[in-house]
Amino acid sequence: RKEVEQDPGPFNVPEGATVAFNCTYSNSASQSFFWYRQDCRKEPKLLMSVYSSGNEDGRFTAQLNRASQYISLLIRDSKLSDSATYLCVVPDVLDSNYQLIWGAGTKLIIKP
Amino acid sequence: DTGVSQDPRHKITKRGQNVTFRCDPISEHNRLYWYRQTLGQGPEFLTYFQNEAQLEKSRLLSDRFSAERPKGSFSTLEIQRTEQGDSAMYLCASSFSERDNEQFFGPGTRLTVL
User: Fold this and answer.
1) What pLDDT shows up at residue B98?
2) In the Cβ-directed half-sphere of B81, how many Cα atoms lie within 13 Å?
3) How far apart are CA B64 and CA B90, in angstroms?
4) From the list B41, B42, B48, which residue is nearest A99 (CB)?
5) Cβ contacts of A41 within 8 Å, gap of 6 or more
6) Which of A68, B59, B78, B113 is most solvent-facing, going by the fewest CB within 10 Å?
């Protein structure tokens, strides 16, 4: 049983379109959630943190649905530079607050 | 450059050899993490330090893996008697304790075991 699940994609999206993808988690006690972005053969970088119902930063919106235990990431007016893998991260609050459980990532390809 | 650095960036070794990787975190960060990542997967937690104390270690981590952070600054990860299955990207990350979950990653060390 995977604790954090993501659709691996790839999502092939034309430039300028809106794209959204979800991440489901199994630990109902989790209070905070994160989206990281990882470019090919590069390290992950924090994109957004979600501590309550959601967060918005420019073209990016993250929303949390606690009842259904998923978080979503919405990208509006997508750019070619948005092409990357988006990793969903949930802290493991059962054993410690310091271990993050990472999804396998959703690959996004923005096409001109 | 004040980011997280890792050395070496690439390592090719023969099965059965020992390897050691180094991570230098952001200087103000007191927490340091090691992860392993294979193609198509997210980072897999290996171990974590707060200052020089190793506070968490993955239950899945083989006894061939050991990590140290002797002075609470840089850290080393050693793999003994390497196996082909150890081939992966080894990532180091660091964070402030007050913002524990915002982790900053180094570029990683790519290990290939022949």
Assistant:
1) 57
2) 3
3) 15
4) B48
5) none
6) B59
Structure tokens given for B61? 């981590």
Residues of B in contact with A44 (CB under 8 A): 43, 91, 105
Nearest CA in chain A to B55: A98
Nearest-angstrom CA–CA distance, A52 and A35: 14
DSSP state of A88: E
Residues 6+ positions from B55 with CB-CB distance below 8 Å: A96, A98, B48, B49
What are the CA-CA distances from residue A55 to residues A50, A73, A92, B40, B54 (Å)?
6, 10, 21, 27, 33
Q: Give the model confidence (pLDDT) of B86-106 as tens digits.
A: 999 999 999 887 555 688 999
Which of B101, B102, B110 to substitute to test the interface with A, most A CBs within 10 Å?
B101
Mean local confidence (pLDDT), A54-68: 92
For the ranges A45-49, B1-5, B88-92, the lowest mean pLDDT is seen at B1-5
